[in-house]
Every structure is written in C-alpha cells, then in structure tokens.
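[step 3/7] fold_predict: job queued, chain A
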Amino acid sequence: MAEAFAALVERVVARLQPLPIVSPEEYRAIGCNRCGLCCEDIRGRHTPEQMRAWLEAPDTDEDRRRFLSGLEPVEPVAGGWRYRCRHFRRDAGGLGECTIHASRPLICSGYPYGRTVRQWTQCAWYVEVRDAAGKVVEVVEPQEPAAGLSHSPAEASFTASRSNDPNFKLNE
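[step 4/7] structure written:
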C-alpha cells in the first residue's frame, strides 16, 4: 500500500513540474529514451474482439496488420482497453527494447508523429514546443531531407494516412 501511494505521489509531483520548452529544431533532435511506455500502455477504444476482426479484415493495410498482430490485451480501462506490444521487453538495465526494431511497423517507427506526449512524464517527448515568437507549436513537421535525398514513399504515405486517422489515435 505504501509503495502504491509513493508511486502516485511521484506521478502527481512530476505532472506539477513545468514542461521543458524546446524549439522545433530541438524537438526534431529528441531521441527515444527507451522508457517503453508507448509499448506497454497502448490505449485503444476497441475491444480485443474488435481488434481481431480489424486484423482479419481484408481491407486492413499490411502495416496496420503487422502492428495489430503484436498487441496483447492487458485490461479494460475507461473508454476502451489497454494493450501492450508482445515484441517489447526490458533489458538488464530496465530500458525498453523492441525485439523487431529493425523491421517494426511504420506505426511504431513514426511515433510520436511530430506531436508532444502528455500522458507519460518519463517520455523524452514530454515537452512543450514553441516557435521563435513563443507560440505553441502543436505539430512539428519533419525536417526536409537534404538535397538529393527524399522521404521514403512508405514514410510519406504513413504520415499522410495515420497522423489524422480518427480510428487510430494511440495513447491519447
């Protein structure tokens, strides 16, 4: 009981701290700190049965199918279900690891889609982005590739199709 209370106090105190403020350029430089919460605390509105049906639907694209096949239901939560990724584990030091990192779905590799993360204070993207005038930036667009390089067609397709998909809002 005391441990649970201490953990709750720690979470509340972390949320009371001011958010680190970064520029769009600094945001683009943020790398995953391997907290693993985006892999262990995947929230969805759909039940496990609905997720299975979506997985088996013939019109489900291959990337989404790969992502859905990795989800394991954990528990029902307010407004839906909590899932975790079966490809996630922790290393000896407690850092998160994806066992399929090199071939993970674009849904995973694109996270957090140019947005900040608000649900996990431990996440590297738990920041506030402001432009040079001090205005909050809601979505940081990817840096344009250097001359002669381009975003992959898959990355461009993923960004266009997933960033505004109302049926696929993870961890919000």
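[step 5/7] annotate
The helical segments are 2-16, 24-29, 37-40, 48-56, 62-69, 106-109, 153-162.
The longest strand covers residues 71-77.
exit 0
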